[in-house]
Give the backbone structure.
Amino acid sequence: MLSNGRWAKNFHPVQAADDDGGFVRLAAGFRSWITPDGTPGPSGVGGFAGEPDRYHLYVALVCPWASRTLMARKLKGLEDIISVTVLDPRLTQKVWRFGGHAEALPGAQAEPWYDAKYLYELYQRADPRYSGRVTVPVLWDKRRETIVSNESSEIIRMLNTAFGDLADQRIDLYPAPWREEIDAVNDRLYEHFNNGVYRAGFATTRSAHEKAVWEVFASLDFIEQRLHGQDFLVGDQFTEADIRAFVTLVRFDLAYYSLFKTNLHQVRDYPNISAYIRRIHALPGIAETVDPQHIKAGYYSIRALNPSGIVPVGPVTQW
């Protein structure tokens, strides 16, 4: 964590806790928006127009929040418009490390412009007095040399609308007729499922862990029932609600089931969900955003939960 632009606190998964020992996720620190003409978005400052070869994503394939943005980039056909760097998935005391070193996991890449070794160095470049967490994804403006956003839910909406004809207009991840229902499903799943697995894994009391686990499995029941007789969560068409659900589901049996002790069932025990994961994984480009080895190596590097740092062996896919 950075405090006033200086490295102040080594990584620990528990960012904050409530009075019951429950994990509390801190808010993202950069919240500007890319818009078609650069006018200000719902938060932050303006000046970020949707243009080719201006923006860059820093991601880690272990991270579901970062993978949301990779999925949106693929589905909207923005691979040639927005470049990407994949960080080493294994968390260090200074959190995210770039590739390009002898111990880097295959697929991890060196930082392409500033010779940075750790992601926090780009946070310092964007704001020399920044205080807060250092997280992925980072949406970087190469022209202004600053962070546009590190809030994944907002980045996927930018990628959906901000690039006009540069993007694939046949796909709308947030269609107007379904927005109210998409928002309702997102709200239903975020705290109890997407963040719920972390609330279980990073709980500091037994009661907080048990509460989170029951909420996770109530959410799985909700998804399983909602998929009865339809292929996707809202309007029977692929939307951002499916992106947000998929990135957690695809990591469940690989990491959350054992590591976070959300182990009442595996997702392969849910027939509708299992078919849903396979259906989304088969969409063009999506398999490239899912790397089971990076997922397992990254989660099992969290030494506060796994002091040995040993990654379990076994099948890399279980859906």
Notes: The chain has a mean pLDDT of 92. The domain at 176-290 is CATH 1.20.1050.10 (Glutathione S-transferase Yfyf (Class Pi); Chain A, domain 2). The two ends are 36 Å apart (CA to CA).
